[in-house]
Amino acid sequence: IRRVQTNNVQDKYLLMKFSRPPSAPRNLAFNINETALILEWSPPSDTGGRKDLTYSVICKKCGLDTSQCEDCGGGLRFIPRHSGLINNSVIVLDFVSHVNYTFEIEAMNGVSELSFSPKPFTAITVTTDQDQTRNSLLMPNIPGGPIFTEVQLYTLYTKEVIFWLLSL
């Protein structure tokens, strides 16, 4: 087998004919502590016939009115980073109170950028609050810092929504 690199559109089409973008990551799980959100997921069920999988975490920030969202920008810290991940986990830090954050986890491979279809993703939405009446034994509260009050998990192209309302 000889590997050929090309910029020819026809050659790229033939490459895509035998491989395809991956499906969405599966089994998104989260862990919350007093300062961080830890996201973990399983590889997609369909890798597109390729082994060069990477992951990206796209963050959208909304106020209490979820109809107006914007990119999170540089406000949050992602460890190790938010894109080009080869492992299936990320730690998110530096949340702001009274904000809805949506994290979309996408799997990508070498032909993902050549596809015209929307990238399938698995997502989680978390809501932060600054309510000092929460039970500090269950979820320690940082004075003046945000705490998580609601978590929703969903996958694009499915009708199933898993919803937790954390009443701590």
TrEMBL record:
Chain ranges of the Fibronectin type-III domain: 21-131
InterPro entries: Ephrin_rcpt_TKs (IPR050449), FN3_dom (IPR003961), FN3_sf (IPR036116), Ig-like_fold (IPR013783)
Localization of this protein: Membrane
Gene3D superfamilies noted in UniProt: Immunoglobulins
One GO term (biological process): axon guidance
Assigned keywords, A-Z: ATP-binding, Membrane, Nucleotide-binding, Receptor, Transmembrane, Transmembrane helix
A single Gene Ontology CC term: plasma membrane
UniProt-listed CDD domains: FN3
Chief localization: membrane
GO molecular function annotation: ATP binding; transmembrane-ephrin receptor activity
Topological relation to the membrane, as annotated: Single-pass type I membrane protein
Domain of life: Eukaryota
PANTHER family xrefs: EPH RECEPTOR A5 (PTHR46877), EPHRIN TYPE-A RECEPTOR 6 (PTHR46877:SF10)
Name assigned to this protein: Fibronectin type-III domain-containing protein
Source organism of the structure: Ailuropoda melanoleuca
Organismal lineage: Eukaryota, Metazoa, Chordata, Craniata, Vertebrata
